[in-house]
Every structure is written in structure tokens, then in C-alpha cells.
Write a sequence for this structure.
């Protein structure tokens, strides 16, 4: 409760707020959990695989902290959970991570970061003169997740946003940063393709030039009709006074006369492969046409688009698929943001039913998270058995979710986990902490030299990442012996040396050391000539560098 | 057909180096450091004939109709004029330095591909395969490093270095064959631990023991990969060969000859790495995605920069006797539309474009294939990414019968089973 008190005091909200948390914890699992279990188990039967055994409480606790808050649990949080023997303890923990105000800030920051990366990539807003303001994007998302804004409202706000990109400026609306850098160039092609891919799971980049090679529903015409919705929109630069440096941009909708110069009939032109020119008006997914006029007073095209998107079943499917992949490691389709008849999902019925349920529950993301994290596939061990070894999507098999799929932590998860594991003192204001974090994350991003701002990460288990874990400042700090650090505390403590070693295993890996590992620790102590501090540091360094620490499993 | 067994760990530790590791670790663990590779000692002979490749990657899709296959007078031609070269070809007037070296290089003017999206084109041109969500193919660098590392028993630094760009991944070859990404200044982050070697070795030994237990419990390939990467990381931290990355130690006049910009210094770094025995280096030059105002950008920025660095690299390799064993590949994802758009730019175009190759025995001074008067179609036999890659493999002495086995046990022919462009070797 201590952290809860400090949190509430620090933002000046009376403690009464926390009463809701102490209300009766959920005793029965929501029906959607049974639905997931039923469909997944049917799949096991069809494919003749058997699930791995359930993972133990401590390991599951580590898993769910990583996926919901973006970091491993502290040793105290871990121990508190393992002490709880109530049968519904897992449901209680999920409820706590999602709804206890003590975790609101962390929850909002993690999901704000996840969605910043989805919407503007890891490099969006990093360059000088960039139209995108990364802080603005993050602030909007953080606030949205902190208040548990419904998903459909978020999508509407992002697609229809107007206002200024930078916090603290007049008309600030952080949501504009999703489109700020995507509307001015190349007739807003990037705005159209990103919006359809991210929110509807429709990959139509290639249809700007030709009909979709696999998805017969998407013609080149469909793309330009979709694109037409963005053509009233402009990002206007606002300079730092007296310079040519962009301070921020203002995303606005203005009257559009179309390529034929007639605002009452604002059509656009595009070119076919054979060089002929065709015209297009705003039509949603080849079906629903809106008012073809171009004056904003007659029709605001992006607002119309956002409304149509909220009615589309693709919206529901895409978010369910995205969230499922976040927690289970693979989505129902691969890639997750490519839906349509050409790319059938692994569990079509489950995807549809979850989509409907999510819509019926007012697009409440916390509900969806609860259903997935309490479902059976999420409780399974990552260790494969002879009965499910063939269930390996990394070699191209359709996922059956018969065991938990091992995966790399995201760079952001590793950063926060190292901070928690080493009890690294985080210094400075919130903004300064964010800047430190961003600078650290930037070392792994490589942008490609194209207009579309695509990028790659070297945080992929290759040598640069290993070098960072071997020698980087963050790890050095995590194994330092300053008084607040874990090593510092253990050095001072009167506990027996083997217990100190065990504590490191708990803190890093959420398990006790094996007999071999205890012997190894003993030998490290001998090798250091009995210097306990150095032996603890060496062991801690090795633990942080293992697969077992850096993978989500 | 020669089936390769995929080796998860490249060689590259000398006997002396290896012995030193063992001495440090024996204080506590004994066998933990036997990483399971055999030592190779037949060095000198291999060293003489060892091949390398340098890929100059023009990220964004260069307008090859303005560089290597000009159409003066055609409505699609643009403002640039062709000039004569030291070979039997003409190239753009804004590449005067390269013009003097074209007797080393061949222009393949009949490239014809189908991927005109950046991501897809980048993948296809790097791997010889079109993207497939169920399988990740290895790129040029991983394939060639994997095939040539046996010629380099002493190499302790990564066999595939990507300078200034991301390149593509190692696919089913595993993370041990991933590109080692550095920026063009050659700075490698987090290289120093600041501990005495013995303690580092003991930490490594402890780590290796712990990992082994985790890997043994069957959890898939991600865990195995990590082990191989750890070992390579450890090797490079303690290797004197890392000095090859210190491009800033070159004399000022050499740096200036390559151009004091990212691509210039990247090409200089590539030369140093090839000299040190690295089999594959990729250097990235971005900024070719010119949908607007293309000719001004080309003549004032891209072309002078590229001309200077590329010519300096080729001259230096030749002067050091390395060009005969080093293949140079110049290409991007695709070319650009012959038609000049309303913004005075050119858009993505894959149907007819050029790539340039040379060195390692490839016949120089020629143009292979021909495009139509306006540059929109290829009029001779069209060549693909697979064909180009096969030709590079042939030049490097890599058997085209080489077949990999992907993670789902599918046989994968090297270079996508392409055919050699025979004109390059006649």
C-alpha cells in the first residue's frame, strides 16, 4: 500500500479513490475466458497436439507483469503474489495490475509506448524539423490509457484529429501526431495506407499502383477512393520565431477543390498501369460513398471516414488480433495486420467471437486483456513436450497455442526490467527520465533512406544487443554496489551467503537456483578469493545476461 | 547436390586465443568453455585465395535511367547527358570519376523485377526470394559470410558488417549470421567492459553454464541462437582485429579522397574491413527515393557523393591487389519510372532498370542487355535478383549447387536457384 499512498498524495487525490480497489476481487472467470479455452482446445484436438503443463505461479507472475506493465515484477511484488494461496489469485493479480491506481501510471506509460511505436514507429519525431512530435503523441496516448478510454473512441480521435502537435502550444491535440507526417507528401498515400493497415488490418500499400495481387476485394480504385478521405487535410508548419526550424505543425482540414478544380465535385485523378488516368471520390472499402463535395462546411471527410471505420468489423478483428499477438506471441494471422480472404486466420471462429464480445463490452481494452491473460493458453509453460513440439510458428507452422511461445523482450521492456532488477535509481523529472529512456532506445533504431520512414531495429538478439547487455551503462548500474541497489543491500545484509545467491535468482528469474547453479555461485566466490561483493556482482551479471532474463517465456 | 550442414557458430578463434580463454576459466568450471567447434589451422593457403564482396546499397531505389542507361533526347530522358568511359559503355556526365574506372565494372541494363514497394523490393533484392510470411530467407551478407567463413580461420570479428544501414536479417541461418551494424564512423558501442580479462572469462563461463540448462529444456530456436551470439560477442571484445573499425585513424588526405560524408567514410571502412579479412561488407547510401525534384538532388548531392566514394574504393582495392578477389555490387530496391511526374520526380519502377557489378573476375567495361528507346521495357533477356545473386556467387567461387535447409526442413537453393548471367564471365 505504500506506493499507493505516495502516488495518491503526489497528485493530490484523496485516498478514498482506492476504495474501489478493495472491493471484492473477481471470483468467477468471465465467460469469454471459457470461450477462448473451448476454441483453443478444439484446435488441439483437431491437430492432435496436447498442451504443455501449466506454468508455476512465480514464472506466470513474471510473464504477466512483462506483458501488462512492460517490466518484470520487483522481488517484493513477486513474493507477495507467491504468498497468496487463494484459488483466484491469478485473476486478482490481473485485476490489480489493470485497476489498482498504484499501477495506473506504469500501465499508461507502457501502453502509450507500445502504441507510439505502432503509430509513428520507433524513429518518428526523432529528427530535427520532423513534423511528428513524439512527446505529443506519447502524451495523448498516455492520457488515453490512464483513463482507459474506449478503443473505438481512440481510433476516432486519431483518424479525425485536428490541432497542434506540440504539448504546451495553443490548440494542442497530441492525437494529430499520427497523421502529421503522413498527409503532405505524395498525395497522402502514407496516411491512407497506415490508417487502413493499423486499424483495419488491410495492407493496401501496393494497390496505389495496381490491383491487390492476392486480395481480390482491393482494387487500385479502392485505394484511391480510400485515399480521397485524406485530401482535405494539410499539416501546416509553425517555425521557431526568426528561424527556418519547424517548432511544431498544425493539422487542419481545408476546402478541397479536387484535381479538376471543382469543390462541388471534388474528385481526384490517379494513373493506371497502362498510363490511362481515372478518377475517384471518397468511398469506404469500395462500398459506402459519402458526399463528394470538397468544402469542409459541407463535409469533413476524415470525420466521415472515422465514423465508417467504427462500423467496420475489420476494426474489431484487427484490435483483437493485435492484442492476442501481444500476449501470446503470435496472432491469428501472420503478419497480424494483414486480414482478408487471401490470408485465413488460424482460429477464425475465435477471432470472430472475440471481436463481437469486445464490441459488446464497449471496446474496453482492460476487459480484453483480462480475458486473454486468464485464458488457458496464457497459463501454459514455454517448455515444449513431445506432444506439441511440432507446434512451432517460428518455422512457419500455423500456431496452435499448445505451449507458450518464447520471444525476445521488446527494448522498452528490457529497459524497465533492468531498472527494476537493479533497483536503479531513476533520477530527474518525468521528462528527463523519458529523455534518458529515449536516448537509450535510440541506439537500436536504424532508419531506411526512404520517404516512407520505414526502419529496423538491431534490438533483435544480435551482437550489438549482446554488447549492450555485457558492457552497457544500464547493466553496469544494475550490478553496482551503491547502497540503494540490490547488490548494495545484499552486501550489507546479515543473511547467509547461499541465501543471498538465491535472492538474485528470485529477483532476476523468478525461481530458485538449481543445485548446479548454487555450486557455480560457490565457485565464483572462490574465484574471487572470497570477496562476496564481487562474487555477487559476477553472478548478477551472468543472470542478467542469460536467455532466461532477456526472453519473455 | 551439396547439402550444407548449417553451422550455428562461425569459426574464428586462434589456438593461442582459445588457450587463453581456457586458462582463465579453468579456475572454476573446466569444461564450460568448450564451445564445440574444431580449430582450423590451414591458414596461409586459404588466405591467398580468399574472396570478399562489398554491396553498395542505394536505399530508396536509384534512378538508373539517369545514371547508367541514359536516354538522351527521349521524352523520358531527363536533362543529363552521357559521357564516354574507360570501358565500352557510356554513363551519366555527373559520374566523371567512375567513368575512368568503368573498365572494371559491368552494367546489367536488363534488370526486370516485380517488387516496387520499398520493403518488398529490399527483401527481394537482398535475398533472391519474394517475401513470404512463413519463412525468413537470409540476405546476401549472411549467405556469403556463411559460405566464405571457412576461408578465414583467424577471423574474430563478425563476418558480415553493415555500415550505415540495416541491410536484411540472417533468416533461417540464425542470429549468429546477422549483420553487425555500425555507423560509418566505425564506432562500436559498449565494446569495453573495463574488467580484467580473467574476471570477464569467469563471468562468461558462469553465463555459459546457466544458458546451457535453459537451452536444454526444449523451448525453440530463439534460445539456441542466443548462445551462438554470446560467443561471437565475447570473441570480438577480446580481438585486436577490431582495430579495423577505427576508420578515423586513416590519414586526412585519404578520408578526403573518399569524401567526408557518411557514405565516403563508409566505403573507406569497407576497404579496411575487407583488408582485415571480413568476407562481406554492405555500405548504405540513402536518399534515392526522389518523388520530386529528382535531377537537382541527383546532380548536386547523390551523384557527386557516390562518384567520389565509389571510385576511391575501386581504385584503392585495385591498387592493393584486392579487386581481383573482391566483388562489388551496386544496386537498390528497384529503379524509377522513365516518365517524369508532375513534381519533376520519378516514382518506383521495377520493370526495367540497371545494377552494376565488378571485381572478383567479373568482366568489366561492358553493358549487359538493353532497354527500349524510352527505357520502359527490357528488350533482351530479362535478369532477376536471383540471376544477379547467382552471378556474384559464381564470381566468389561459391557453388550454385549449395542448398540450405530452412527451419521447416524445406530445401532452399542458394540465390533462389537463379541462372548465371553468362555475359559477365565470357
Amino acid at each position: 500500500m505504500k506506493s499507493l499512498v505516495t502516488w495518491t498524495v503526489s497528485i493530490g487525490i484523496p485516498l478514498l479513490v482506492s476504495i474501489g480497489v478493495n472491493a471484492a476481487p473477481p471470483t468467477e472467470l468471465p465467460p469469454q475466458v471459457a470461450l477462448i479455452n473451448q476454441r483453443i482446445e478444439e484446435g488441439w484436438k483437431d491437430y492432435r497436439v496436447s498442451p504443455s503443463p501449466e506454468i508455476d505461479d512465480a514464472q506466470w507472475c513474471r510473464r504477466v507483469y512483462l506483458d501488462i506493465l512492460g517490466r518484470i515484477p520487483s522481488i517484493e511484488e513477486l513474493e507477495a503474489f507467491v504468498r497468496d494461496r487463494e484459488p483466484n489469485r491469478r485473476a486478482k493479480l490481473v485485476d490489480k495490475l489493470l485497476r489498482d491506481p498504484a499501477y495506473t501510471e506504469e500501465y499508461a506509460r507502457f501502453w502509450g509506448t507500445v502504441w507510439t511505436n505502432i503509430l509513428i514507429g520507433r524513429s518518428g519525431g526523432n529528427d530535427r524539423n520532423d513534423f511528428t512530435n513524439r512527446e505529443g503523441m506519447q502524451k495523448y496516448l498516455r492520457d488515453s490509457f490512464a483513463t482507459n478510454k474506449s478503443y473505438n473512441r481512440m481510433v476516432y480521435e486519431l483518424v479525425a484529429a485536428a490541432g497542434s502537435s506540440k504539448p504546451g502550444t495553443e490548440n494542442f491535440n497530441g492525437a494529430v501526431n499520427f497523421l502529421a507526417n503522413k498527409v503532405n507528401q505524395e498525395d497522402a498515400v502514407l496516411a491512407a495506407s497506415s490508417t487502413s493497415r493499423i486499424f483495419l488490418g488491410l495492407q493496401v500499400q501496393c494497390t496505389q499502383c495496381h490491383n491487390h495481387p492476392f486480395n481480390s476485394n482491393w482494387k487500385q480504385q479502392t485505394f484511391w477512393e480510400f485515399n480521397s478521405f485524406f485530401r482535405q487535410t494539410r499539416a501546416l508548419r509553425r517555425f521557431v520565431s526568426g528561424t527556418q526550424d519547424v517548432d511544431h505543425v498544425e493539422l487542419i482540414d481545408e476546402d478541397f477543390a479536387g484535381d479538376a478544380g471543382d469543390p462541388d465535385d471534388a474528385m481526384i485523378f490517379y494513373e493506371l498501369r497502362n498510363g490511362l488516368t481515372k478518377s475517384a471520390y471518397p468511398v469506404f472499402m469500395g462500398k459506402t460513398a459519402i458526399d463528394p463535395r470538397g468544402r469542409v462546411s459541407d463535409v469533413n471527410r476524415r470525420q466521415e471516414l472515422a465514423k465508417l471505420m467504427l462500423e467496420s468489423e475489420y476494426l474489431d478483428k484487427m484490435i483483437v488480433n493485435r492484442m492476442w499477438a501481444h500476449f501470446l506471441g503470435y496472432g491469428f494471422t501472420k503478419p497480424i495486420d494483414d486480414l482478408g480472404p487471401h490470408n485465413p486466420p488460424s482460429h477464425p471462429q475465435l477471432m470472430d467471437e472475440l471481436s463481437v464480445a469486445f464490441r459488446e463490452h464497449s471496446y474496453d481494452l482492460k476487459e480484453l486483456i483480462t480475458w486473454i491473460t486468464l485464458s488457458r493458453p496464457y497459463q501454459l509453460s514455454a517448455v515444449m513436450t513431445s506432444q506439441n513440439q511440432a507446434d512451432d510458428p517460428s518455422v512457419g507452422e500455423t500456431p496452435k497455442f499448445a505451449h507458450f511461445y518464447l520471444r525476445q523482450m521488446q527494448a522498452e521492456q528490457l529497459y524497465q526490467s533492468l531498472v527494476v532488477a537493479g533497483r536503479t535509481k531513476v533520477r530527474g523529472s518525468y521528462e528527463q527520465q523519458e529523455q534518458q529512456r529515449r536516448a537509450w532506445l535510440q541506439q537500436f533504431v536504424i532508419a531506411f533512406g526512404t520517404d516512407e520512414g520505414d526502419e529496423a531495429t538491431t534490438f533483435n538478439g544480435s551482437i550489438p544487443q549482446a554488447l549492450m547487455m555485457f558492457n552497457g551503462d544500464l547493466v553496469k548500474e544494475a550490478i553496482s554496489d551503491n547502497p540503494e541497489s540490490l547488490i548494495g543491500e545484499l552486501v550489507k545484509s546479515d543473511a547467509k551467503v547461499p541465501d543471498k545467491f538465491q535472492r538474485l535468482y528470485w529477483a532476476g528469474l523468478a525461481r530458485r537456483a538449481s543445485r548446479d547453479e548454487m555450486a557455480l555461485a560457490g565457485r565464483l566466490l572462490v574465484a574471487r578469493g572470497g570477496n562476496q561483493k564481487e562474487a555477487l556482482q559476477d553472478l548478477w551479471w551472468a543472470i542478467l545476461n542469460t536467455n532466461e532474463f532477456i526472453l519473455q517465456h | 547436390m551439396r547439402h550444407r550442414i548449417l553451422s550455428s557458430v562461425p569459426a574464428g578463434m586462434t589456438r593461442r586465443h582459445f588457450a587463453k580463454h581456457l586458462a582463465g576459466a579453468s579456475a572454476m568450471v573446466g569444461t564450460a568453455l568448450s564451445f564445440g567447434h574444431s580449430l582450423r589451422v590451414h591458414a596461409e593457403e586459404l588466405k591467398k585465395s580468399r574472396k570478399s564482396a562489398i554491396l553498395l546499397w542505394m536505399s530508396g531505389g536509384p534512378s538508373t535511367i539517369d545514371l547508367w542507361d541514359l536516354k538522351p533526347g527521349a521524352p523520358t530522358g531527363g536533362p543529363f547527358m552521357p559521357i564516354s568511359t574507360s570501358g565500352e559503355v557510356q554513363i551519366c556526365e555527373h559520374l566523371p570519376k567512375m567513368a575512368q574506372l568503368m573498365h572494371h565494372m559491368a552494367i546489367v541494363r536488363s534488370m526486370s523485377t516485380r517488387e516496387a514497394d520499398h520493403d518488398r523490393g529490399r527483401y527481394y533484392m537482398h535475398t533472391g526470394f519474394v517475401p513470404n510470411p512463413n519463412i525468413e530467407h537470409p540476405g546476401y551478407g549472411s549467405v556469403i559470410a556463411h559460405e566464405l567463413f571457412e576461408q578465414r580461420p583467424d577471423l574474430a570479428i563478425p563476418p558480415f558488417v553493415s555500415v550505415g544501414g540495416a541491410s536484411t536479417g540472417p533468416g533461417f541461418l540464425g542470429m549468429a549470421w546477422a549483420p553487425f551494424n555500425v555507423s560509418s564512423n566505425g564506432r562500436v558501442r559498449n565494446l569495453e567492459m573495463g574488467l580484467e580479462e580473467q574476471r570477464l572469462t569467469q563471468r562468461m563461463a558462469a553465463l555459459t553454464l546457466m544458458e546451457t540448462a535453459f537451452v536444454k529444456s526444449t523451448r525453440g530456436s530463439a534460445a539456441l541462437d542466443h548462445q551462438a551470439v554470446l560467443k561471437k560477442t565475447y570473441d570480438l571484445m577480446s580481438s585486436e582485429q577490431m582495430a579495423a573499425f577505427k576508420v578515423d585513424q586513416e590519414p586526412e588526405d585519404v578520408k578526403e579522397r573518399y569524401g567526408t560524408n557518411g557514405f565516403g567514410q563508409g566505403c573507406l571502412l569497407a576497404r579496411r574491413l575487407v583488408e582485415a579479412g571480413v568476407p562481406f561488407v554492405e555500405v548504405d547510401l540513402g536518399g534515392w527515393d526522389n518523388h520530386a525534384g529528382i535531377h537537382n538532388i541527383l546532380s548536386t548531392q547523390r551523384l557527386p557523393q557516390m562518384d567520389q566514394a565509389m571510385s576511391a574504393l575501386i581504385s584503392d582495392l585495385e591498387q592493393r591487389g584486392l579487386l581481383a578477389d573482391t566483388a562489388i555490387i551496386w544496386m537498390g530496391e528497384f529503379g524509377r519510372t522513365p516518365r517524369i511526374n508532375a513534381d519533376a520526380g520519378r516514382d518506383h519502377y521495377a520493370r526495367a532498370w540497371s545494377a552494376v557489378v565488378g571485381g572478383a573476375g567479373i568482366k568489366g567495361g561492358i553493358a549487359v542487355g538493353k532497354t527500349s528507346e524510352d527505357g520502359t521495357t527490357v528488350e533482351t533477356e530479362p535478369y532477376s535478383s536471383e540471376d544477379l545473386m547467382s552471378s556474384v556467387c559464381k564470381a566468389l567461387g561459391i557453388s550454385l549447387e549449395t542448398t540450405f535447409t530452412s527451419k521447416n526442413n524445406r530445401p532452399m537453393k542458394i540465390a533462389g536457384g537463379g541462372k548465371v548471367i553468362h555475359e559477365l564471365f565470357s
Summary: Chain B is about 30% helix and 15% strand. The two ends of chain B are 25 Å apart (CA to CA). The domain at 53-189+243-425 of chain B is CATH 3.40.720.10 (Alkaline Phosphatase, subunit A). The first strand of chain B starts at residue 52 and ends at 58.
